[in-house]
Amino acid sequence: MRRKTATRLNMMKLLGVIYVPFMMLGYVGTGVVLVDAGVAYWSLALLLGLAVGTSFLAESFIPN
Q: pTM to 2 decimals?
């Protein structure tokens, strides 16, 4: 039981470390590439919804 708790804590720390780079490079970078490629602006709303959903999911796993 103790090892399972330690593994969970390590995963939460990893999520806390990779969260911001993933959001900045992943979603913001994808948005820039889409705008540069001339994709319709409404598709950015889908990307924004995905980013917000990812944010809520990550915040439910990372404790305060």
A: 0.72
